[in-house]
Amino acid sequence: MEKRTLGRSDIAIAPIVFGGNVFGWTADKETSFALLDRFVDAGFNAVDTADTYSSFAPGNEGGESETVIGEWIASRKRRDDLVIMSKVAKWKQRPGLSEANIMAAIDDSLKRLKTDHLDVYFAHEDDKTVPLEETLGAFAKLVEAGKVRVLGASNYEAARVEEALTISEANSGPRYEVLQPEYNLYARGDFEGPLKETAQTHGLGVVTYFSLASGFLTGKYRSKADIEGANRERMLGGYFNDGGKGQRILEALDEVAGATGAKPAEIALAWLIAKDGVTAPIASATSVKQLDETLGAAKVKLSADQMRVLDEAGA
After folding, report:
1. Would 180 disulfide with which of 154, 164, 243, 311, CB 3.0-4.6 Å?
2. Can you point out the beta strands (E) in the chain?
3. Contact call for residues 110 and 116 (beta carbons, < 8 A)
């Protein structure tokens, strides 16, 4: 399987990243282990998590996802088979991007993950209360100490990425090599435009989150009635209150799926994989069957006409 490098780093990843937010939430430990086993055995290697996962779930405090991944690493002895991406800034117990918080947060994450380094460490969101010089200086110390290989920025505006890159260059320090924006067939504004231009101008890697729009793009949910009682009901509701855009996208997915024999989720991910500027989409799964269908997207090749149909539906 062809792998793609992250920015100008020496880290190469397969074209789909596993979204580890489900570990310790909608996937228990046993299921999570089975998912990681299948994912790695299929030739994929990058897993995305964060210290705050899954503090959003009732009864959870945060750190659950990293803990499950760490237990898998300890059990399977396969640390070198994973490119681990984690994040700092959004967890209420370790908020923000001050140097003190970053230094404390990395040690917490490494302990939970049972490893001595992260392959990619993201600023989970911009923190404008802290000077970028302080944040980047702290990240540089982590790289120098060998605790982090590559830096990334999630939920940053293009102008702030540009500013961060300028500071890193002026200080001869490590720069953000990877961006993590929300991007999918439905939500395109955060990436398409200045952020994409910045990524391409500076040769940055891009891994997209909400790649399947919280499950909407799987085609599983066709009406408001379908999402009642679902774990992601709150997140999914907006896709049915948009003047028909969501329905147009589902119809386009159905059309292309019918022509290719693939499932809608595979088509939605294949569209991202084929988009200029995208290194890999992040996608999660809560069963091995669902994971197999998700990973099948890496084998789907969309024609120019099929890409156009999908582009126009989600424009």
Report:
1. 154
2. 4-5, 12-13, 17-19, 46-48, 83-88, 90-91, 94-95, 118-123, 148-154, 176-180, 205-208, 280-283
3. yes
Of 263, 268, 255, nearest to 293 by C-alpha is: 263
310 φ/ψ sector (left φ>0, alpha ψ -120 to 50, else beta):
alpha
pLDDT in tens, 134-188: 999 999 999 999 999 999 999 999 999 999 999 999 999 999 999 999 999 999 9
Q: What are phi and psi of 263, to 5 degrees?
A: -90, 160
pTM of the model: 0.95
Question: 244: exposed, middle or buried (C-beta count within 10 Å: 0-12, 13-18, 19+)?
Answer: exposed
Structure tokens, 7: 């920015």
At residue 12, the 3 state secondary structure works out as strand
Are 219 and 265 spatial neighbours (Cβ–Cβ below 8 Å)?
yes
Q: What is the DSSP string of 102-156?
A: HHHHHHHHHHHHTSS-EEEEEESS--TTS-HHHHHHHHHHHHHTTSEEEEEEES-
Q: Domain-by-domain residue ranges, the chain? A: 4-214+274-301
CA 5/CA 1 separation, integer angstroms = 13
Thinking of the domain 4-214+274-301, which architecture would CATH place it in?
Alpha-Beta Barrel (3.20)
Placement of tokens 């994409």 in the chain: 196
* CA atoms of 290 and 180, how far apart (whole Å): 23
> 227: number of CA atoms within 13 Å, CB side?
18
Burial of 45 (C-beta count, 10 Å sphere; 0-12/13-18/19+): buried
Residue 222, CB-side half-sphere exposure with 13 Å CA sphere? 6
- 159 vs 155: CA distance, rounded Å: 12
Question: What is the Cα–Cα distance from 37 to 39, expressed in whole angstroms?
Answer: 6
